[in-house]
Write a structure and sequence with these properties.
CATH class of the largest domain: Alpha Beta
Number of helices: 11
Radius of gyration: 18 Å
Structural class: alpha/beta
Shape: elongated
Strand content: 5-15%
Distance between the termini: 5 Å
Strand order of the largest sheet: 3-2-1-4-5-6
CATH superfamily of the largest domain: HAD superfamily/HAD-like
CATH architecture of the largest domain: 3-Layer(aba) Sandwich
Number of strands: 6
Bound molecules: magnesium ion
Order of helices and strands: EHHHHHHEHEHHEHEEH
Largest sheet: 6 strands, parallel
CATH topology of the largest domain: Rossmann fold
Helix content: 40-55%
Length: 233
């Protein structure tokens, strides 16, 4: 399919195109070895990764709601993880968050069919990124993974001063790309930010739901695999 009312596709980045979980797990497994956490701590690399995901998701949910700052995520994340894993403070490496923040965006795993779908969509649509992620890491992720060339604009919550689900970040995007909301569709994996944000800005949405989560949002479209986009657009 190609003819549709849309001209612009707005993509989320993390967990939608860039494989956050796989890239993070790989980085954390490397850091577990480098910092000798198996010697000083009483937890496996798998427990380390699982605890990171648990704490990180809590912090990001609070961040997305405007309850905590970037600084809190960056300074408290690993302390919380190590506290939960009962690693004594004297063994908690101080610079591990900096190492994680530097190393993880260099990883290049993308979600299944990302490039195949982007190669198709780029022939018919202008595409842009809207992300609540931070400038310093999102640009590295886009360039290293090879995703960057597909996108005309990259809008981050830091550059806009508002974050999804605020309508403001979508309105800011429409101004930047000189588009009407009726010509745009937002594609993302997060109901509370990507989908609710697009609804708040009266923009159509595609909910990317690879794990088949049950929900009660009235989404415009829903897909379980990125390859489904080829038949929708
Ligand atoms: Mg996401």
């Amino acid at each position: 399919m190609a003819a549709s009312k849309y001209k612009h596709i707005l993509f989320d980045l993390d967990h939608t195109l860039w494989d956050y979980d796989r890239n993070a797990a790989e980085t954390l497994t490397e850091l577990y070895k480098e910092y000798n956490l198996s010697t000083n701590g009483n937890f496996s690399d798998k427990e380390f990764v699982a605890t990171f995901f648990e704490i990180n998701e809590q912090l990001w949910t609070s961040y997305n709601k405007g309850q905590i700052s970037k600084h809190v995520i960056r300074t408290q994340r690993f302390n919380k993880i190590f506290d939960q894993l009962n690693l004594p403070l004297q063994y908690q490496p101080r610079d591990i968050d900096a190492r994680y923040v530097h190393g993880c965006p260099e990883k290049t795993h993308t979600m299944a069919y990302a490039f195949e779908v982007l190669d198709y969509l780029v022939q018919h649509y202008s595409m842009h990124i809207i992300t609540n992620g931070f400038n310093d890491v999102q640009s590295t992720k886009l360039s290293r993974s090879g995703l960057a060339p597909y996108f005309d604009h990259v809008i981050t919550s830091e550059s806009c001063g508002a974050k999804k689900p605020a309508a403001r970040i979508f309105e800011y995007t429409l101004e930047k790309i000189s588009a009407d909301k009726s010509e745009c569709v937002m594609i993302g994996d997060n109901l509370n930010t990507d989908i609710q944000g697009a609804i708040n800005a009266d923009i159509d949405q595609v909910y990317y739901n690879p794990t088949g989560k049950a929900h009660d949002h009235a989404v415009t479209m829903e897909i379980s695999c990125l390859s489904d986009l080829k038949s929708l657009f």
